[in-house]
Amino acid sequence: MVTHSKFDSAMSSSPFDSSMRLPHRYKTFTSKAQCQMVLATLCKLQESGFYWGAITGKEANNLLLSEATGTFLIRDSSDNRHLFTLSLMTVSGTKNLRIQCDSSSFFLQTDPKNIQSVPHFDCVLKLVHYYMPQSKAAISGNNHNGNAFYIYSGGEKIPLELLKPLSGSLSTLQHLCRKTLNGHLDISSKRDQLPHPLKEFLQEYDAPI
What we know:
Elements: H1 4-12, H2 32-48, H3 57-64, E1 71-76, E2 84-90, E3 93-101, E4 106-108, H4 124-130, E5 138-140, E6 143-144, E7 150-153, E8 156-159, E9 164-165, H5 173-182, H6 187-190, H7 196-204
Parallel strand pairs: 1-9
Antiparallel strand pairs: 1-2, 2-3, 3-4, 5-6, 7-8
């Protein structure tokens, strides 16, 4: 296991800002690769505008209370076994879904009986985008390849709808343009034609949300 004591040395040689810290409840890593994956995800989340850090479930509920169904945010998990939580407003009120993290990926376990069938991602932003209806993987609504997604809570089967991130800060014009470019499927084939500083800027945040 890679503990906090070893994590400090990993940070000193990483390309990320040394002032950046992981959610304080996270205790161990299974490998250096997992550590790097989490650091990369955290860096992108901090750029996203809808990562609210160490707020509580009650605070998330208050933020989402007056928002429309489908509004969501990412926050630190209050469970020390996990890193992040997806809080969202559903047709049945606010729900909090833990974002699971294994040695090489993040995944959203909406149904405890189907852990093997849920999609896995190397970044939380990719996970969120997959469940949004504007994702290119979606056929319509939250229907991916004919499979609708649901939250199972208290005996209820609630549609999982991620429609609008709740931003806690204003994005710069540069960041808005970057997200727009990332939303175009053909941009990947043209990256090599872009100036090096622009390619780096796009690579630092490669999600359209």
